[in-house]
Amino acid sequence: MPEVSSSRWMLVAGVVPPTLVALLAAIVVPELATMYESFGAELPIETRLLLGTYRWYGLLGLVVLGLGLFWPRASDRGVLALVVGVGGSLLLVIFSAWSLYRPIFMLAATGESGG
Question: Which of 21, 63, 70, 100 is the least crowded, having the fewest Cβ atoms under 10 Å away?
Fold first, then answer.
C-alpha cells in the first residue's frame, strides 16, 4: 500500500472544515431567516449580507482544493490548503455567528429599554 504524503492529509484537513461550514450554513441559516421574517423589524446590514451570501460558502472549499492541487510550489500546497481552509472557516463561523445572533441581541435590547 503506497504511503500517502502529508501534503495530501493537510489538503483533506483543509477542505473538510469549509465543507462542514457550508453544509451547516445551508441548514441553519434558512431556519433562522424564517424566524427573522416573523420579527417584522429591519435586520442589521451584516445579517442581510449573510442571508444573501451564505450559499457561496462552499466556494471556500473549492478554493482550498485548487490551492492544494495547483499552487506553484508543490512543497507549500498542503500547508497553504490547511491554513486557508481552517482560517477561512473560522472567519466564516465568527461572521455567521455574529450576524445570526445580532438581531436577537437587538430585539432583547429594545425589549429592555421599552419595559
Answer: 70
